[in-house]
Amino acid sequence: MPNAAIVVADADFAGCMELQKLQSTQKLRYMGKTPLLPGCYLQVKARIKAVSGALPTVRIAGWAGDDSESHVGGVTEVGGSTTLTTYGSVVEVTAIVGTGARTGVDMPWGRAATYGHMGLDLIGPNGGVVRIDDIEITDITSAFLRDMLSVVDVLDYGAVGDNATDNTAAFEAADAAADGRQILVPAGRFFLGDTVSLNNPVFFEGSLRMATNKMLLLRKNFDFPSYAAAFDNEELGFKKAFQALLNSSDHESLDLAGRMITVTEPIDMQAAVPNRTSYSTRRVIRNGQLAASGGAAWDTDTWTERATYNPSDPRTLTNVNNIANIAVGSLVEGSGVGREIYVRSKNIGTGEITLSAPLYDASGTQKFTFKDFKYILDFSGFSALSKFGMTEVELQCNSHCSALRLPAAGTVFSLDHCFISRPKDRGITSIGSGCQGILVDNCQFLSAEEPLDVEDRTSVGLNVNANDAKLRNNRVTKFRHFALLAGANKTITGNHFFQGDETAAGVRTAGLVLASTYCATTVSDNYVDNCFIEWTNEQDPRPDFNTGFSFSSLSITDNVFLSSHVAPWFSYIVVKPYGTGHFLNGVSISGNKFRSINGSIDRADRVDTSFSDLDFGRCKSVFFEGNTFHGITAIVASPLRVRHVQSSNSNTWTVQTSGNLPFEGNARAVDAVTAIGPIRNASGTFRYVMPYVQLEQGSNDDQIRLNWGESLRGEVQVVVRVDK
């Protein structure tokens, strides 16, 4: 071009181009193809100085081309403009070209442009002369790497990973700048002195340190793996995640993401959330496993201390020695103490312990034993916890510890599709009314005591003190008891619980213990395998019947009862009164399948008279019908159909029930007397007469007497009932 020349010895530039501006837009381009790749960003830079004449304005510019060497229209092809103001002063102009419209990119060309001709433009007044140094093109993609990867590094906002500096403000600033991008916590240990809420996803290469009462609220990646990475410790990560679960409205559940958490000591769930002593919004822990490792932290603490019990204050022990040592949640044992009685709370100042249930015969002062079992998850520090659940979680106790201790109060604690595996002492323990409305569905309780004979087992699957429990479709293996259930309004359905061993004529223990007289409970469609249902009043501080409904409102229907290798006196349904005067009042036992193999048993039902018998002269509304019996001597029913053949003439016929009334009760009513064939007198004449009935005859009150107006013989069918 006639208006351009090479200057070989410029004082500022060495070799350079001298150019006079003659056009309104004087363009200078490098006509080699500069490739432009997706994700690549180039900086175009030139140095320029005015020599003479009018002072122009300069800007970096380019020409965008595609694979067919055609111009790509509609894109920005110029950078920012700079006006030259003095002669001889060197000015540097730059612009960035790339495929993406990122912050700092002057010429975003998109994917269509594959190369460019780069250079500069002179605009403004004509006639001036400038000198232009080399045009440099540099790949500066690295400057955009963090932005391209959507990462914000907390170090860029002042964080210091020295385990001492308070990085609260730096983390909050990084979160504010992220705007949907991921926050990076790089290698190092970062102290956070206050609660931090992060609204963007976080990736942890380093770890955090926080006080117990300060919270980390991860609103975008709220799950256990994120918290485990944040604190570089599974147990602490779980505690912090649980803390956040109860302090954030963003998430209703904590996902363990299928991870196994190794637990080295009991987890005090309330201590993990020191700002909450109660909670009543639905929350769930799901999808993972907590596995106990061995160690002294799991050892049971035991105290034997003197205390006083007064039945008039049935849930209180007074004058308790060394009460400060006794842990809330401890099992209470002693003379006259029923099963599964726990310390619900204590008052050190007054020396009083509040019990989970009354004691049946412990009046006075004696020594009690208190055993504090250790649990993987211990909620007993909460005064109340409601609508809390666990789904698809395994508590793997590994014979080191128990599984789950409930809070003192609360409603609708739920477990669904969970495993309680090999607990040392207890599966689920309720120390108060935190079991109100408990739901245990589709779970497996796997005992650590399978190798032991039944009489040597001590572990219990669960206990319930309050009303409205639902146990449905669970599988339970070889505990001493599956469940001890106090309170009323229970539904136990679809469960399979088995407790046998290989010992010939072996002892069997109760699978279900119903510890309320008025229990209002349905037990249906279960598989009761080598154990039995026991109904007691062992939590009654005055166990003798005084007033109320006595043993009432129980339905046992459509279950499978199976036993093998048991003693003949074994029975499937056992009533055990702890006081005198009790009776059956509203009991339905129907549609069940009773079967004994490898040895027959005497009967399916019995009363355990270790403390007292039932008063069968008061039974009401007892239905025992439609059941099947195999390998069982007594075919029990009420109404019971009895055929009596009187072969010799007599005015009085004594009809035996032969122990086939429920629980060997009294013959208290007759629904019908039907002649089977003719009734004859001594001369063989047919007589069409009716007898009158005398009830509760014989030494056991289980016979009836038919009284005729004359001496007769024949056969009758009598329908006898154990109730009125």
Break the fold down into its secondary structure elements and pairings.
Blueprint: E1 4-10, E2 14-20, E3 25-29, E4 34-35, E5 41-52, E6 57-65, E7 78-83, E8 91-98, E9 107-108, E10 115-123, E11 129-132, E12 136-139, H1 145-148, E13 151-153, E14 162-166, H2 168-178, E15 182-185, E16 189-192, E17 196-198, E18 202-204, E19 207-210, E20 216-218, H3 224-231, H4 234-245, E21 253-255, E22 260-263, E23 267-268, E24 278-279, E25 283-292, E26 301-309, E27 316-318, E28 331-333, E29 343-347, E30 352-355, E31 364-372, E32 375-378, E33 384-385, E34 388-396, E35 402-405, E36 414-416, E37 419-421, E38 426-429, E39 439-441, E40 444-446, E41 460-464, E42 470-472, E43 475-477, E44 481-485, E45 491-493, E46 496-498, E47 510-514, E48 518-524, E49 527-529, E50 532-536, E51 551-557, E52 560-564, E53 573-576, E54 584-590, E55 593-597, E56 605-607, E57 620-625, E58 628-630, E59 640-656, E60 669-675, E61 680-681, E62 692-697, E63 703-721
